[in-house]
Amino acid sequence: MKYLQKIFTGIFLLLFLFSELSAQCTGGTATGSITPTLAWQTTSTANINGGDYKTFAATAGNIYYFSFCAADGGSSTYDTQISILTNAGVGVGAGGYNDDNCGLQSYVAWTCVTTGTYRVLVNRFSCALQTALGNLAYKYSAALTCPSGLGSGVTNVSSLPYSSGAGTTCGAGNDITASNSLVCGSTSYYGGEDRVWIFNPAISGTVTITLTSSGTWTGLMLYRGCPINGQGGVCVDFAQSSTGNKTLSVCLQGGVAYYLIMDSYPSPTCNPYSDLTISAPVAAGGCSVGTGLTNIALPYTSTGRTTCGKINDQTASNTITCGSTLYTTAEDEVFSFVPSISGTITVSLTSASSWVGITLFDGCPMTSSCSGTPGVCVAFEQSSAGSQSMCVNVVAGKTYYLVVDQFASPTCIPSYNINITAPSGVAAGTTCANPYIIASLPISLNNETTACMGNDYNNATAGSCGTFYESGEDKVYRFTATGAQCIAINITQASTNYIGYTVYNGCPGAGGVCVGSNGGANAGALAGSVVLPGAGTYYIIIDTWAPQTMQRMIFPL
């Protein structure tokens, strides 16, 4: 079904683009003149025939509107076309033609360049005649300015944060169009009825804008200054897609007027929304992660949580990459905490969902933060499973952000439980700087683990032995040899056959040289030997082969 939906969506887009590229109709039969006024009217154009045109006087700079859309007072049961021609019957060019704006009905907003007499020609697609084609509504307006030229759907936001509550663009009118405003993103999202919010942040900082809507094909376009052509506005950012929900996270200037437009594809012509929120600005050095933030203290346990309704705030375009970006496509929740002591924590998430990912950042995960000091990916666990767990080392006093997200679909986790332990002491064996020291040989160690030790040494480390068995978490042992000798290394009862070891003369990454390696257990057992070439400090690293995180197969349309 999803594949078919993509095909139908592609066909819809191609048909829409084809209609926009169709040539203006010409010719026609003169049936008198009309006089556009500041209000919509259908005088002399009720039940107008396809193939007829009306003349009208136009003044340079004024905008002339013609519409078969019901929202403007027009109507038709046919697939209509509107063409603006000079009085010599030549098309006026840009902005002077439309087919299929509100469904199959057409709408034109044309800015007159040269004062004179013009024709408005109507047809049934494609440039055909049709008796009683419909009612053509028309009006004009002087050159638009802000806010008077933005129509009736304008809200002046007195202060931030702001929440609109439930509303709709239906009945607000199609005032902002691709022909009368600076296009921000795709011209396709200027075809429906629209609403505008004007706000002025008190201070500079990161502002998050979230639209919650059950509608489809919505667009959010944000401008610094008036969006109308010639008024000096600048496109800041936009979010446009086939879904209703949208989010923007942008760095804005204090004391500057911003204009936020909610519009849509012309089909549907309008959309409802349950809320539109604009956050207070988060000053430089802060972190704005959207609607799903919870500040916690460690240890932390919570049951029956959900990401549903939290909005898809963390996306591939606004979040620092941590693992696969495919796990930033669903609604998400973020936990922020500051450890009081350094040590190892365990994060455990359990759910009956699927394709869940958890990512941990040292510092703000958002690339759009005004801070200028982006966070760092610490660790991640992502797979087709609904439950995930990871062990990581954290440092006291630092701010960490744990993101719970998904590979959509599903679009959210209906229910999950989460547990984050308090930091415990860092066990010996994490790195060469904190190794488990082998004082003498032989030695036998029981119940060893690489869990929570971190993936510190791998194929990317300078001097790596270059084996497959260097991609998981690793534990480091240090042994000081008094001379050349052969040592045996035996591993038994391993929980995975993907286990291996490497031996270095000196620390890898700091001038150490590989002197031996082995990997691939049988029934959890691995045995081998390594010749130490002479006296010196040697590092034995137990590691695993960690196959890449499972990814879904994506087949392009």
What does this 3D model show about the protein?
The protein is mainly β. It folds into 4 domains: 22-141, Sandwich (Jelly Rolls), CATH 2.60.120; 148-278, Jelly Rolls (Sandwich); 293-420, Jelly Rolls (Sandwich), CATH 2.60.120; 436-544, Sandwich (Jelly Rolls). The protein is 4% helix and 38% strand. It has 1 helix and 38 strands. The protein has one helix at residues 2-21, and strands at residues 29-33, 48-50, 52-58, 63-67, 75-76, 80-86, 97-99, 107-111, 116-124, 130-135, 137-141, 154-156, 162-163, 167-168, 195-199, 205-212, 218-224, 234-240, 246-252, 258-264, 272-273, 275-278, 293-295, 300-305, 333-337, 343-351, 356-362, 376-382, 388-394, 400-406, 416-420, 436-438, 475-481, 485-491, 499-505, 513-519, 526-532, 536-544. It has a 5-stranded mixed β-sheet with strand order 1-3-9-6-7, with no helix packed on it. Strands 12-15-20-17-18 form a 5-stranded mixed β-sheet, with no helix packed on it. Strands 23-25-30-27-28 form a 5-stranded mixed β-sheet, with no helix packed on it. A hairpin with a 7-residue loop joins strand 35 and strand 36. The radius of gyration is 32 Å and the shape is elongated. The two termini are 13 Å apart.
CATH-scheme architecture of the largest domain: Sandwich
Helical residues, percent:
under 10%
Termini gap: 13 Å
The number of strands is: 38
Round the Cα radius of gyration to an integer and report it: 32 Å
Strand order of the largest sheet: 1-3-9-6-7
Provide tags for this entry.
single chain, 557 residues, mainly beta, Jelly Rolls, five-stranded mixed beta sheet, 1 helix, 38 strands, elongated, disordered N terminus, disordered C terminus
